[in-house]
Design brief:
Blueprint (H helix, E strand, L loop, with lengths): L3 E6 L6 H15 L7 E6 L5 H8 L5 E4 L16 H6 L4 E4 L2 H6 L4 H13 L3 E6 L3 H5 L3 H12 L10 E4 L13 H18 L2 H6 L2 E3 L8 H5 L6 E4 L6 H13 L1
Parallel strand pairs: 1-2, 1-8, 2-3, 3-4, 4-5, 5-6, 6-7
Helix pairs in contact: 1-2, 1-11, 7-8
């Protein structure tokens, strides 16, 4: 049975003391919870990875990076290599987020290269895919999803080493959310693609998260869908009370 994964993506938010306070409070909130069926991940800005990792060592949550470079090392000012993440024992890393695709023109080829680098160092990628509002209105959502799956996972072997996050771009930071039925439809499509291109076991074991404005009010109705295995959460992950509440809901399911 797949675990529920509740992952918080802080993006470019939180000052140092805010991050520290959040992580210690989250640690306290999770201390008495039975998380056997739920995995909690926090993805802070890279400057806080060491702080976050140190606190996570004595807590019930894990740490992920928000991005990584597809080169092993070299003259890439401001970038972070997979080896750097590995040297800090960071277990997860987001790749392919819609904001990276939009603002930094990251292609499926670049995302595919990042994913392979992460696998070389046994770091689990949280691989994001999703359509824009224009693409949804043009009724090409499924074409976009399948294209991103084919491009991002080209020549990639999957066992238990990939998490996929479906993020309808039109629902990120807008307060809009895909209905549970809309989200489930795309999650089922992704799972069907995994079975067709890998195996039934891979399809059944790969977590698929929903990444479009999940919050305490809609988390339960999304998580009870058969193919939604958690959330990659943005805005609600910046409030420790809201985020903890969503973890608690997941634990109760």
């Amino acid at each position: 049975m797949r675990k529920i994964i509740i992952a918080g993506n802080w993006k470019m938010n939180m000052l140092f003391t805010e991050a520290e306070d959040f992580l210690f409070e989250l640690s306290d909130n999770l201390e008495e919870k039975n998380l056997n069926s739920v995995e909690v991940v926090i993805c802070p800005p890279s400057v806080y990875l060491e702080l976050s990792s140190d606190i996570a060592d004595d807590s019930k949550f894990f740490i992920g990076a928000q991005n990584v470079n597809d080169n092993s090392n070299g003259a890439y000012t401001g970038e972070i290599s997979v080896a750097m993440l590995d040297s800090m024992d960071i277990p997860y890393c987001i790749i392919g987020h819609s904001e990276r695709r939009k603002y930094y023109a990251e292609s499926d080829e670049v995302i595919n290269a990042k994913l392979k680098k992460l696998h070389e160092n046994e770091i689990v990628p949280i691989f994001c895919i999703g359509e824009t509002l224009t693409q949804r209105e043009q009724n090409i959502t499924k074409d976009i999803i399948l294209s991103q799956l084919n491009g991002g996972l080209k020549d990639v072997e999957i066992e238990d080493n990939v998490i996929i996050a479906y993020e309808p771009v039109w629902a990120i930071g807008t307060g809009k959310t895909a209905t549970p039925a809309q989200a489930q439809e795309i999650h089922a499509l992704i799972r069907e693609w995994l079975e067709e291109n890998y195996s039934k076991d891979v399809s059944g074991n790969t977590p698929i998260l929903y990444g479009g404005s999940m919050n305490p009010e809609n988390v339960k109705e999304l998580l009870i869908q058969p193919d939604i295995d958690g959330g990659l959460i943005g805005g609600a992950a910046l409030d420790v009370s809201k985020f903890s509440s969503m973890v608690a809901t997941a634990v109760e399911l």
